[in-house]
Write a structure and sequence with these properties.
CATH topology: Rossmann fold
Strand content: 25-35%
Radius of gyration: 15 Å
Number of domains: 1
Largest sheet: 4 strands, antiparallel
Number of strands: 4
Length: 92
């Protein structure tokens, strides 16, 4: 496993601020949860950690590596060969 670090992580959608300057350190083998009401930015934080969306400002670090590499081309979601999590449902 590796440490996770969020430094001044911010995400704006237009004039709406979804995440505002979040600082967080999760050590190796440490258990952590994100709790909050609907619309508080939990999913947005997780999507930035995973690299699905680009933060407006701040950094996401896993181990010694920064997640968002601004020089790397972004692949469309379908071309990453990732599932939406609904593959187990039978097709009609």
């Amino acid at each position: 496993m590796a440490e996770l670090g969020l430094s001044r992580l911010t995400k704006h959608f237009g004039e709406t601020t979804a995440v505002d300057a979040l600082d967080l350190e999760v050590k190796d083998r440490e258990f952590m949860t994100l709790l909050g009401p609907s619309g508080s930015g939990k999913t947005t934080v997780l999507r930035m950690i995973a690299g699905y969306i680009e933060p407006t400002a701040g950094k996401v670090r896993v181990g010694s590596r920064e997640v968002q590499d601004r020089n790397k081309p972004r692949w469309p979601f379908a071309r990453r060969r990732l599932s939406s999590g609904r593959r187990w449902m039978p097709r009609r």
